[in-house]
Amino acid sequence: MPKPKSFTAWLKTHADQRTAIGDLARDVSTDPDWPSRKGRQGQLDYLEERGAIDAAIETLERAWTQYEAYRAAQTDT
User: Fold this and answer.
1) CA distance 15 to 68
2) Helices in 31-53 by DSSP H: which ranges?
3) What local confidence, expressed as pLDDT, does residue 4 receive?
4) pLDDT for 2-30, tens place per residue?
5) pLDDT in the model for residue 1
6) By the 8 A CB rule, do 55 and 23 touch?
7) Per-residue b/e over 16-38, b at no fewer than 16 CB within 10 Å?
8) In whole angstroms, what separates CA 5 from the centre of its chain?
9) Is the dihedral of CA 48, 51, 52, 53 positive or negative?
10) Which of 52, 57, 73 is nearest to 1 (CA)?
11) Ranges for the YozE SAM-like domain (predicted)?
12) What's the pLDDT score for residue 37?
């Protein structure tokens, strides 16, 4: 069974979507300072430190919820 993608790798697969998560994915893809290995809290802290709007933080939370569902589906197979 293949190892599930990291959150950042999973998120970047959504860059072609015309949704808030797609917008976040495009932003992350072009941000050289994105803390890809810092986990959920580190990424939330990163957005907050940079003055991200509430909608961006909510989008990251929603993306993590979807990512966790993806990971659960990967381990259930």
Assistant:
1) 18
2) 39-49
3) 85
4) 788 999 999 999 999 999 999 999 999 99
5) 61
6) no
7) eeeeebbbbbbbbeeeeebbbee
8) 11
9) positive
10) 73
11) 6-68
12) 94
Of 32, 19, 26, 10, whose CA–CA distance to 59 is shortest?
A: 19
Query: Do 4 and 74 meet the contact criterion of CB atoms below 8 Å apart?
Result: yes
Tell whether the model's pLDDT for residue 77 goes beyond 80. Answer: no
pLDDT tens digits, one per residue of 59-69: 999 999 999 99
User: Do 67 and 11 form a contact (C-beta atoms < 8 A)?
Assistant: yes
How many CA atoms lie less than 13 Å away from 19 in the CB half-sphere? Answer: 14
Kindly compute the dihedral angle of the four CA atoms of residues 37, 66, 29, 31, in this order, to the nearest 10 degrees: -60
